[in-house]
Amino acid sequence: MKRVVLLGGAFTLIGSFFFSAQDALVKWLSTDFSLLQLLLVRSSIMIPVFALICVWRFGSRGLMTQRPGGHLLRATFNLVAFLSYYFAITRMPLVDAISIASAYPVILAVMSGVILAEIPSGRQIMAVIVGFIGVLFIIQPTGGEVDWLGAGAALFGCFSFAALGIYTRHLSRTESSELMLLSGAIFILLVSLMSSPWTWQTPSLSSLLLMLGLSGVALVGQYAITNGFRYAPVYLVGALEYTTLIWATLWGFFLFAEVPTVNVVFGAVLVVLSGLAVVLGERAREQEDAS
To answer: In sequence order, what E strands does 110-169 have?
Structure first.
């Protein structure tokens, strides 16, 4: 059993690294290309891979659904979340944007309480407050150089990812993860294609290779995190995903000469601690329910 959990932890660490690399590539490429063009290339690679996985696991019936409207709604949440988050990355230092996005478990706890009637514990309520204070430290609302558009996009993306997580949980009662990933990629491709007459710029060979690398990195990250949830407890995956902040700091420093301020570091610590409190609180609740 311990070996299985360790395997899940290893997958999570690998996935966190590749997702941080994806964010760095998006920031690098977005100086010359639109976000929708990057998503177009990314989804073009992902669609055949996800389709093959669906057929391999479930046969041709794996590509069928009785809930097309549900897939469309989830895909919309998915697109809005990614566009908001990627837009924030283009406007802010990498570690700042990812630190705000790391408040996702905290926001998810709040939204679960409102939408799913899952009442948070006192510890989790305190964690939400601490997480909110941490986000304020990162944004620095009293500072004179605050990029409100970038910070707002990061927060909106955080709420969108939380909504995506809640609706995915609802839809997964009848739909496979592979089909949900496939439908989300198809929706992104269609929207990107419709915008391509205005957003497409022919890339050089090196830029095209970076875009393909972005797609490959995203696929590996998705596969690794999925297996992390498969083999390890949710609380462990949630805790290990915070290693993304370490990689974001390194990518930001070496690729973009970004050095996080003291306020950002302190705020990130508060966000991580609050997120860990929420995740570990869920573990304690599960143990109480089991007993």
So the answer is: none
Cβ-proximal residues to 232 (8 Å cutoff; 6+ apart), any chain: 4, 5, 7, 8, 9, 11, 12
pLDDT surpassing 70 at residue 189: yes
Closest CA to 185 of 20, 21, 26, 74: 74
The burial of 259, by beta-carbon neighbours within 10 Å (0-12 exposed, 13-18 middle, 19 or more buried), is given as exposed
**Residues 179/63, Cβ–Cβ less than 8 Å:** yes
- 3-state SS assignment for residue 259: coil
Q: Tokens at residue 271, please? A: 């966000």
pLDDT at 1 over 60: no
CB 29 within 8 A of CB 20: no
Q: How far apart are CA 41 and CA 51, in angstroms?
A: 16
Quick check: 2 and 236 in contact, CB under 8 A?
no
For residue 241, what is the DSSP state?
A: G
User: In the chain, how many H helices and how many E strands?
Assistant: 12, 0
Q: Which residues of 170-205 are buried (b: 16+ CB within 10 A; e: fewer)?
A: ebeeebbbbbbbbbbbbbbbebbeebeeebeeebee
Q: Which two tokens stand for residue 108?
A: 């998810």
**Confidence tier at 286 by pLDDT (50, 70, 90):** low
Tokens of 74: 């989830």
Burial tier of 107 (Cβ tally within 10 Å: 0-12, 13-18, 19+): buried
Instruction: Give per-residue pLDDT as tens, 50-77.
Output: 999 999 989 988 899 989 999 999 999 9
CA distances from 186 to 103, 121, 283 (A): 28, 39, 35
- What is the domain partition of the chain in residue ranges? 2-290
More confident residue, 115 or 137: 137
> Residue 168's Cα: distance from chain center in Å?
13
